[in-house]
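Quick start: read one record
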Amino acid sequence: MTSPLYTASIPVMQQMLRALSDVLKKAEDHAAQRNIDPNALLQARLFPDMFPLVRQVQIASDFSKGIASRLAGAEVPSWPDSETSFADLQALIAKALAHLDSFQPAQFDLSESRDIVLRPGTPKEKKLTASAYLLHYGLPQFFFHVTTAYAILRHNGVEVGKRDYMGAY
């Protein structure tokens, strides 16, 4: 039987990252068709104290790799956050999807008994069971940043709807 933590993480994040990729393509097309500087969308924010679109996509990708790696007991890879264009963001999402594809369900078999330690050795250290980490921290963080990226683009006139947000399932 496939681990419930695998089932609740890898396929879900793959679906949402593919949908995010499609939404970004629509945004790029939107900018080109309307002669909008792509940077206007890439640096758009919902509010001045929030991260721009580029950073939202970077963080969503970071959470996907971190969730998968931690649940599988693997090292979390470090990727520089140097993306500045739609093409860069597409490459980042492709890299995140490839990372998710690299895991086999069997790697999650022991994840139920695994503890996840966030920010080890710091005053903010937090120890969670794997299921609490996934369901109460990792996935909510991942969805927040995917949703915020979608909302930034919708707010800026990109014609996307719920179907675009959900992607193929």
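The longest helix spans residues 4-33.
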